[in-house]
Design goal:
The chain is an alpha/beta fold. The protein folds into 2 domains: about 80 residues, Winged helix-like DNA-binding domain superfamily/Winged helix DNA-binding domain (Arc Repressor Mutant, subunit A, Orthogonal Bundle); about 200 residues, 3-Layer(aba) Sandwich (D-Maltodextrin-Binding Protein, domain 2). The protein contains 10 helices and 11 strands. The strands form 2 sheets. Strands 3, 4, 5, 6, 7, 8, 9, 10 and 11 form a 9-stranded mixed sheet that branches.
Amino acid sequence: MNWDDVRCFLSVARSGQFLAAAKRLGVNHATLSRRVSALETSLGSQLFLRSTNGCELTEQGARFLVSAERMEVEMMNAQADLGRVDAAVAGTVRIGAPDGFGVAFLAPRLGPLIARYPALRVQLVPVPRSFSLSQREADIAITIERPDQGRLVSAKLTDYSLGLYASRSYVETKGTPPQLEALKDHARIGYVEDLIFAPSLNYTGEIMRDWDAAFEISSAIGQTEAVRSGAGIGILHDYIARQYPELVRLFPQHSILRSYWTTYHESARELVRVRTVVQFLQELIAQEKRNFT
């Protein structure tokens, strides 16, 4: 069995498309298809069901994926033992994160990690969505809920809080609501409900039974900008909102508490580059704990 063929199989299995996998590996589509076909021939099993929309693993393919991921870890461990790749904290690590945490907190603070490990390449993907670690959409995901399914390794990164905010220009024009019930008389900003990707993001009910926002934005950063502009009152991350003196915290006695978790696939447990980035994130949060509490 050729390891390069197995590597091609893993890329296709994780992307769900031959074309996307070929681009990721830097080979042409025909070469990748030949390699996967050669692997199927050597195994005597069909690994993928191919269609015009992509491909999916057969039952045999899903079973082989487990073995292939173990092979991948062993190969990388062997390279590390020989002083290659991970031993020098080299290679690419992709971090998937909620847009608020990724843009407002991580992006300005990852420079020292790159400076410390020049051979390390970091990809930050800060978008309001969840990531599939089994398909390698990210090597490390910052999640807002601890995953309870899959072969994943999770650890709490930090707790954080959210609160009600308005801009100074808004309260000067529209006034400050005297109690929570009075929020119904004000413009409200919230998430696009059918795009909420995790139950814990549906937190408006902890403030008001029917939030019924007039302006919905599927992005924490977008909501912050809308509140700053004076468009209405919103529930914002405290660690983001504190950066803007033009924002006013309303009803400070009412806070919503959530947590961030670091999560990665257990097959990456032995990869030095992944462990190094996770440790950096933990150290970073420990140093900046005051921003989240």
